[in-house]
Write a structure and sequence with these properties.
The complex is a heterodimer of chains A (290) and B (376).
Chain A lengths: L1 H30 L6 H18 L4 H30 L3 H23 L14 E4 L2 E3 L1 H23 L1 H11 L1 H6 L4 H26 L6 H16 L4 H17 L9 H15 L12
Chain B lengths: L2 H19 L7 E7 L6 H20 L7 E7 L4 H13 L5 E4 L2 H14 L2 E4 L14 E3 L4 H15 L4 E7 L2 H17 L2 E8 L7 H10 L3 E5 L2 H13 L5 E4 L6 H5 L7 E5 L8 H14 L5 H22 L6 H11 L1 E4 L2 E4 L10 E7 L2 E7 L2
Parallel strand pairs in B: 1-2, 1-3, 3-4, 4-5, 6-7, 6-8, 8-9, 9-10
Antiparallel strand pairs in B: 10-13, 11-12, 13-14
Helix pairs in contact in B: 2-11, 3-4, 5-6, 11-12
Classes of the chains: A mainly alpha (290), B alpha/beta (376).
Chain lengths: 290, 376
């Protein structure tokens, strides 16, 4: 029964990790920008939802909408006012990374100043587990997390495969020069990528606010998972990032059946190392020719 | 890969902000504070700083010292490595003869600099038992966790008839000390340790741990963690259907605990403080703190108020005897004066730089906590 319980917990955690990782992977795979501030987007979305729903007592739909708007606006503003100017002048990968890192620290401190530095959470009955079989507890939030993850992945696939913007985004990740030759603007497309990638962080942020609660430095853990899942899944592969997120969530939880909880976080890195050794290009990444 | 860079950037930003915000003046007496001001335990820095700042305000208002007392803050992030860097800066750059530290790991790291440079380090927040053994320049104004466990465990076993314990502890010096001591104390009073689980300092997901605890089916879940992690743990244990008694130590005495509905009914120990006491030091502290923050103080606030007040009393004595304010002289003055009027009453140090105080057991209620057992 313990194994089954851990399996269910792992699927729930994995669904959230997958949602987080896909947004990061989409941005990185398409624009080659190491968007370290993806964790900050997550933090902003979570705190906006918390403040409007739990503090201001607005309807959940308004809080969700505002949270999504805040995340998208943050992503767009960061791309427009930080990444694009840096790329215009120098374009160094490391410069962009340091800028993103600085922004994430700034956001962490601003969230601390605005919303307080104490731990807060959204109190909801959705996070309370119910016994569905003897000794087996599942919270409604688990089901919500899995359904939302499936809906978002399905929606993303349809968007990327069936719409002009989606196809242009895929082309951008393959060959930016060719995109330019067809009269499309990579900069404008990168704005769409940031909007979409930031939006993908929102459901996980809201579910985390309800399930595990918030504190301003939450983004660091989010980035760790995003990075690990992107590498394990294959850089730029959305399917890979989603599968890797799920694998990491499952591995973290199932490890508890055999090891001390102390090792659960290390499991993420063990999966990462094994993946790099066995399949350096990731689950669905392209094999890099020497 | 990112953590060291993270730490450097964090401390640089905080240091720049503090430098810009609080310039020192000639004649000022500067003491240091090595507190967490960013990261998941930043809330403790706010609490500790509130007590320290109030004490400095009172000391300067009373002109207790020849110069103006200033506190220079450095960010430890509650991490030993960062705390060590902060301590080194406070001692070598700010030339602080007296530094307040917090958290067991940070305090242990800072104590090495304190011992080498003969700087007094005073802890008012960390409770690891190891803190009693860090040399003559390391003092504690808070009772250590062995005193808290010594009160809580017999209370749970004898008064509440809870005998089967599961311990969840953070993998740092504090948690390891609890994991080492608790089985011995439990066996003395007829309790039993079913399982003990260590968790990394950065862990945030606990539904798997809840499943393991449920399989153990204990009477009590004792948590030796702190800050956001401890509250996340409590929320997730309760959300995962665990109804057993939750018990912990003084780290739960933070505002976030009272705001968390899932924490209702949790028991935690703290040093005993009588906020209604008529003694002038306590009364002034409680009145001014309540006026300033519109709430009652906690033991942590009082501890760092006491830490700063202790410095002022010692420095005042040194100034009276025309002696320079150095770590060595402060230590000598502490041994000479022996007893100090502090918030909560008279404070007397043991030979190893610790203090002995009565411990009480508190229970979290709706937005408040009540004393359920006053220990000795």
């Amino acid at each position: 029964m313990l194994f089954l319980q851990l399996l269910i917990n792992g699927i729930q955690a994995g669904a959230l990790y997958a949602l987080i990782a896909v947004g990061f992977s989409l941005i990185f795979g398409t624009t080659r920008i190491f968007h370290f501030a993806h964790g900050a987007t997550f933090t902003i979305a979570a705190y906006v939802f918390y403040h409007l729903y739990a503090v201001a007592h607005l309807h959940w739909s308004i809080a969700v909408l505002a949270s999504a708007m805040a995340a998208v606006l943050f992503g767009l503003a960061l791309n427009r006012w930080v990444y694009i100017p840096i790329q215009k002048h120098e374009g160094s990968f490391f410069t962009v990374f340091v800028a993103a890192f600085g922004v994430s620290i700034l956001v962490e401190n601003l969230c601390g100043m605005v919303f307080g530095r104490s731990y807060v959470s959204v109190d909801t009955t959705l996070s309370r587990s119910v016994e569905i079989a003897h000794g087996l507890y599942v919270s409604p939030l688990s089901g919500v997390a899995i359904v939302i993850a499936l809906l978002f992945f399905g929606g993303l696939q349809v968007f990327l495969m069936r719409t002009h913007t989606g196809m242009a985004l895929r082309a951008l990740s393959d060959n930016p020069e060719l995109v330019r030759a067809y009269g499309l603007s990579p900069r404008r497309l990168s704005m769409s990528v940031f909007a979409l990638g930031s939006l993908l962080a929102v459901p996980a942020a809201i579910l985390s606010a309800m399930g595990s609660g918030l504190q301003p430095s939450l983004g660091e853990h989010v980035m760790l998972i995003s990075l690990a899942a992107s590498i394990v899944g294959g850089i730029g592969s959305l399917r890979g990032a989603a599968c890797a997120g799920l694998v990491l969530g499952l591995a973290e939880n199932l490890a508890l059946a055999y090891f001390q909880p102390q090792w659960s976080e290390a499991v993420t890195f063990i999966v990462l190392f094994l993946s790099i050794i066995v399949r350096p290009s990731g689950f669905f990444g392209r094999v890099i020719a020497s | 890969m990112f953590k060291p860079l993270n730490k450097i950037l964090h401390s640089s930003l905080v240091a720049c902000a503090l430098f810009a915000a609080a310039p020192a003046h000639a004649g000022d007496i500067t003491i240091g504070a090595d507190f967490p001001m960013s990261g998941p335990n930043a809330t403790y820095g706010d609490i500790f700083g509130a007590g320290a700042n109030l004490a400095a305000e009172h000391i300067n208002a009373d002109h207790m010292l020849d110069g103006k007392l200033a506190i220079q803050y450095e960010d430890s992030q509650a991490l030993p490595q960062q705390g060590l860097i902060a301590m080194t800066k406070l001692v070598n750059v700010a030339k602080a003869p007296y530094v307040m530290t917090a958290f067991t790991g940070v305090s242990k790291a800072a104590s090495t600099v304190a011992a080498r440079t003969k700087t007094v380090a005073v802890n008012g927040g960390g409770v690891g038992p190891d803190l009693a053994e860090l040399g003559p320049y390391f003092w504690n104004v808070i009772p250590l966790i062995n005193a808290e466990i010594d009160t809580m465990v017999p209370y749970l076993v004898k008064e509440r008839n809870f005998k089967r314990f599961v311990l969840i502890y953070v993998d740092d010096p504090l948690g390891q000390a609890v994991a080492k001591d608790m089985p011995t104390i439990l066996s003395k009073v007829g309790g039993k340790m079913l399982d003990s689980m260590s968790i990394p300092v950065t862990e945030q997901q606990f539904s798997g741990i809840a499943a393991k605890v449920r399989a153990d089916n204990p009477d009590v879940i004792y948590i030796a963690s702190y800050g956001a992690q401890e509250l996340q743990l409590i929320k997730q244990l309760r959300d995962n259907g665990l109804t057993q008694q939750i018990a912990s130590y003084s780290a739960l005495a933070i505002p976030g605990t009272l705001a968390l509905p899932q924490a209702k009914g949790a028991l935690y120990t703290t040093q005993h403080m009588d906020w209604s006491s008529a003694d002038p030091v306590t009364k002034r502290f409680v009145d001014d703190y309540s006026k300033k923050y519109n709430k009652q103080p906690t033991a942590y606030v009082a501890n760092y108020y006491n830490a700063v007040r202790l410095f002022a009393l010692l420095a005042q004595d040194l100034e009276k005897h025309k002696q320079p304010i150095t770590g060595e002289n402060l230590l000598k003055a502490r041994k000479d004066l022996k007893t100090f009027d502090m918030v909560g009453g008279k404070m007397v140090f043991n030979e190893n730089g610790t203090v002995t105080m009565p411990i009480q057991v508190n229970e979290v209620e709706d937005q408040a906590s009540k004393i359920v057992y006053a220990g000795k």
